[in-house]
Amino acid sequence: MQKWLEELLDVLPEKQIMTEAADRFSYSFDASFGEHLPEAVVQVKTTEETVHVMKTANAYGVPVTPRGQSTSLSGGPLPVKGGIVLDMVQWPEKIEVTPDDLIAVVSPSVLTADINKTVEPYGLMYPPDPSSAHVCTIGGNLAENSGGPRGLKYGVTKDYVIGLEVVTPEGEVMKTGGRTIKNVTGFDLTKLIIGSEGTLGVITEAVVKLVPKPPAVQTLMAVFDDVETAGQAISQTLTSGILPSKMEFVDQACLQAVEQYKPIGLPVEAAAVLIIELDGHPEAISIETKEVERIMQELGATDSQIPDTPEEAAEIWQARKLVSPAIATIKPTKVAEDATVPRSQIGPMMGRLRTIKEKYDVDLVVFGHAGDGNLHPDVMCDTRDQEEMERVERAVAEIFEAAIDLGGTLSGEHGIGTMKSAFMEQELGATGVDMMKRIKEAWDPNNILNPGKIFPEQGQTRLVLRDE
Amino acid sequence: MSNETSLKDALAYDKTFDCVQCGYCLPACPTYETMEKETHSPRGRINLIKMAAEGKASLDDLKEPIEKCLGCMACTTVCPTDVQYGDLLEAAKETLEKHETKTKTQQKTEGFLFGSFFPSSSWMNALGQATWLYQASGMQKAARALRLTSMAPLHLGEFEQVVPAQPSPKERKARSRRVKPDGTPAAKVAFFTGCVMDSVFFETNQNTVELLRLSGAEVILPENQTCCGALHAHAGKTDMAKEQAAANIQVFEEEDVDYIVNNAGGCGAKLIEYDRMFEEGTDWQERALAFTEKVKDISEVLVELDGLAFSKDVPKTITYQPSCHMTNVQRVTRPPRELMESIPGLTLKDMDNPGFCCGSAGIYNIVNYNDAMDILDVKMADVKKTSPEAIVTTNPGCLLQMKLGVQREGQGESVEAVHLVDLLMEAGPRSRN
Ligand SMILES: Cc1cc2nc3c(=O)[nH]c(=O)nc-3n(C[C@H](O)[C@H](O)[C@H](O)COP(=O)(O)OP(=O)(O)OC[C@H]3O[C@@H](n4cnc5c(N)ncnc54)[C@H](O)[C@@H]3O)c2cc1C
Ligand code: SF4
Ligand code: SF4
C-alpha cells in the first residue's frame, strides 16, 4: 500500500477510503466531458479529517480534487492529475437557522434546495436557484458561484455568502468574513474563495444570508414572432421601473422539442417566448403585471398569457423545466454553454448564434436566463460521431468569441474547469491570467488542490471534446 | 474485436449514452443513501456498465454494484432523459449470470428455486399448506421437511415468523375458478394469482376475487398460469423468464377477457412489459402486446368499475407504502389513494419519502439481507413519524417486509401491515347496484 494511504488510515475510518476499481471509476466523471481515474476516493466528514487529508497530500505531493455531487458542467470535480477525489457528500448535513439574524450556517454537503425548505417556515428565502438545486451541494455552488433564474433580481451565490470556514491547500483551518452583513476587515477572502472551483481551499462550512420570502408571485408568458423584439422587450421592461424576479427566454427549436416531448399546447409557431415572474406584495405585483403586459403588447408581442391559478403558472414553468430533457431527445450529447452578454446585447448575440448554427451546421438551441444576459446556447450532438464533434468544437469556440466581442463572458454560471480554460486569456488578457496564477501559486505552493483546472495547460489552445 | 462487440451488445452499451450524468437520480436512490457511495448509485452503475462494455472495467468490477441494486426503478421516474435503466440492469444481470462460475450447491439451489419452485403452483401451494400445517398443528418440522431453510443459508426463519395465518388445504381446494356477479356482468376479467400471493397471501387473493365480484365483474382464474417471471429476470435468467411469459400469454389467450388483473405490484410490472421480452415484429411480440394491453392492477380496475359502496367505518390512522414497481414501472399512483380516500372513517397520513424502497425488492431481502435491513431501517424511521395503526401496501414482498419492519421495531402488537385489498374488505364492501 502507498505510504500516504497508510497515513490517511491513521485518522480516517477504513470505510471512508476507497481504492477498488469500481469505486475509482464511479468518481471519475462529472456532467461534462471526459473521465479520469483517481488513485483513491476519500470521504471526509469533519474539518479535522479534511485537515489530515490536506496535510498528508502536501507531504507526499498527491493531488486532491474536491467533489460534491459532480453535477458540474465544466469539468471541475474531474481528477485530471489522478490522486485523491475528496468526496464531500457524506459530511453530516447541518442547517442552523438564526431567524433574527437572517442567516443560516450550513455544512458543505447540504443540498441547495434543502436550505430553502428549512428556512421557509420562518418566512425566509435563500434566493440562489440553480436548476440542479435539488441535487447539487452548497459546497459545489460556492465553488462554482452558481446562479439561476432569480439571479436577475437577487443575484447569485456570492451575493449570499458572508462567512466561510476553509481548509487551505496546506491543511490549515481559516475563517473568512463572519455573521454580519457589513464587514470590511482586510481583504474580502470570502469572495475570492467563492467561484475558485476548488482550487484555493476546501470549504467546510458557510454562513449564508437570507431574505424575507416575498408574499406573492405572478407569472406571465409573452409570445414573439421575432427574436430581436423579444430582446427589446427585456430591456424595455427593465428600464420601466420594474424588476421581475425571473425573465426566461425559450427559442423556437426548444419550444418545438418540448411540445414533441410532452404536448402541453405551447405556441410552436412563435420565434421565441419570454416567461416572466414578478414577486412582492400582492397589490404591487397586480399593478406591475398590467404594466408588463402593456409593454409586451406595445412592442409587438403576438400574445400574452397571465395564468390565474398557481397550477396554471406551474404548467408554464414546467414548460421551461422540460426544455433540458426535451432537447436531449434531439441528440444524446449535450454541450451546455452559458456564455453571457450585457443585456442590451441579447438581440445581437441571438443573431450571432444563428450565423454560427448555419456556418457549422450544428443543432444549436437557445434558452436561458435572458433577463440577466445569461443565455444557454446548447449544442446537441453525438460523441460517437467524431466528424460532428469536430464541428461542434469549432462552433463552441466561436460562441465564446462572440460573447467576448459583445462585451460579455465565457461563463455566466457553469465555471471554467477544463472545458473553457483554453479561452481564459482571450477574455482576461495575459496580465489578468497571470495575476490569477500568482494568487494560486501563493495559496497552494505545491499545486495540490484541484490541479489542471481554470488555467490552460501547456499547449492547450482550444476546446477538445473528442478522444485524441 | 467480435468479442468486444458482443459484450457491447450484451450490456446494451448504446443505451448508456442516454445518460447525461446529470445526477438527478442520486437523491432518489435508496442504495446511494444507505451504502454512501456513487458506486451504488444509478449514475455510477450506468457508468460502470459503460466502462465494462468498453473493456476498461472488468465484469468483476460490475458485479457487486449490480447485485446490490434493488431494481426499484425510482431512478427512472426522476430521470429527465428517460434512460432505460431497467433494460440496462437486466442486460448487466444476464451478462454477469452467463459469466458467473457458481458452486455446485449454488447451482442446485438456484436450479430448484427458479426452475421448479417459483413456477410451480403445486410447490407454492405446498409452501402455503406447509405454513398452514406448521401454524395449525404446531408441527415445528413442517417447514424444515420442505428443506426450505437448508436450501440456502437464508434468513427464512425470520420471514416465516411474519407469514400470516393460512387457510386449510381444503379451503384452497374449494376455491372456484369462475365467479359470477349477482347481476349482468359489467366486465369479464381474468385474475393473475401470482405465486407468492397465492401461497402465502391466499386470503388476500380470495378477497381480491370477492371485490371484483362485488364490483360487478365476472372473474376467471385460469388454472395453468405460472410465475410471472420477474424473479427470474431480476436474477439474470432472461431465457427462463421468457418461457414463463410465453406460457402465461398462451393460458390467458384462451379466455376472452377485458382485463388481466393482478394484485402484486412486482408481478404487474413484469406482466406489463411482456411485449418487450420478444423481438420486435414477431408473432410472439404481437401476442405479448395483446396481453399487456389488458394488464391492470386491482386498484385500477376497482376504480374503473366504480361498483363498490362501503358499509363500515374503519376508524384507523394508516400510512401508505406504495410498491416501487407499481409507481415506477406500472406508473399507477392515483387509484390506490382514491380507494383509500373512499373508505369511511379512515385517516391517511403520508410519510416522508414514500417513494423510497422498503428494501424487499423481489428476493433482495433474502439474498442481501443486511443491506435490505439498512434500507428497511430508513423506511421504518419515516413510518414511525406518522404513528400509524396500519401500514398499507400493494405487493406481497413489500407486505412481508413491512411486517418484518414492524416486528424488528418491536411494534408487532400495535401496528399491522395490510394489503390494500384486505383493508377494503374491513370496510364492509357492498355492491353499489
Ligand atoms: C441538469 C443540470 C442543470 C444545471 N443547472 C445549473 C444552473 O441553473 N445554474 C448553475 O449555476 N449551475 C447549474 N448546473 C451546474 C452545477 O449543478 C453547479 O455547478 C453546481 O454548483 C455543482 O455542484 P456539485 O455539488 O455537483 O459540485 P461538483 O460538480 O461536484 O463540483 C463543482 C466544483 O466545486 C468544487 N467543490 C465541490 N465541493 C467543494 C467544497 N466543499 N470545497 C471546495 N470546492 C468544492 C469541485 O472541486 C468542483 O470544482 C447544472 C448542472 C446540471 C447537470
Ligand atoms: S437522472 Fe438519468 S441522465 Fe441523469 S444521471 Fe441519472 S440516469 Fe443519468
Ligand atoms: S433501481 Fe433503485 S436501487 Fe437500483 S439504481 Fe435505481 S434507484 Fe438505485
Automatic annotation (TrEMBL), chain A:
Domain FAD-binding PCMH-type, chain residue ranges per copy: 34-213
Pfam families xrefs: FAD-oxidase_C (PF02913), FAD_binding_4 (PF01565)
Keyword Flavoprotein belongs to the record: yes
Stretches assigned to coiled coil: none
InterPro entries noted in UniProt: FAD-bd_oxidored_4_C, FAD-bd_PCMH, FAD-bd_PCMH-like_sf, FAD-bd_PCMH_sub2, FAD-linked_Oxase-like_C, FAD-linked_OxidoTrans_Type4, Oxid_FAD_bind_N, Vanillyl_alc_oxidase_C-sub2
Gene Ontology molecular function, alphabetical: FAD binding; oxidoreductase activity
Cofactor or coenzyme needed: FAD
Keyword hit for Disulfide bond: no
Record's keyword terms, sorted: FAD, Flavoprotein, Oxidoreductase
Alphabetized PROSITE patterns for the sequence: FAD_PCMH (PS51387)
UniProt similarity note: Belongs to the FAD-binding oxidoreductase/transferase type 4 family.
The protein's name in its UniProt record: Glycolate oxidase
Species name: Salibacterium halotolerans
Species lineage: Bacteria, Bacillati, Bacillota, Bacilli, Bacillales
TrEMBL record, chain B:
Key word Cytoplasm present: no
Keywords assigned: 4Fe-4S, Electron transport, Iron, Iron-sulfur, Metal-binding, Repeat, Transport
The protein's required cofactors: [4Fe-4S] cluster
Co-factor binding comment: Binds 2 [4Fe-4S] clusters.
Enzyme superclass (EC): oxidoreductase
Domain 4Fe-4S ferredoxin-type: residue ranges: 9-40, 59-83
Keyword Zinc: no
Catalytic activity from the UniProt record: glycolate + A = glyoxylate + AH2; (R)-lactate + A = pyruvate + AH2
Documented EC number(s): 1.1.99.14
Pfam family membership, one: CCG
InterPro entries, A to Z: 4Fe4S_Fe-S-bd, 4Fe4S_Fe_S_CS, Cys_rich_dom, Glc_ox_4Fe-4S, Helical_ferredxn
A single MF term (Gene Ontology): metal ion binding
Function: Component of a complex that catalyzes the oxidation of glycolate to glyoxylate.
Name of this protein: Glycolate oxidase iron-sulfur subunit
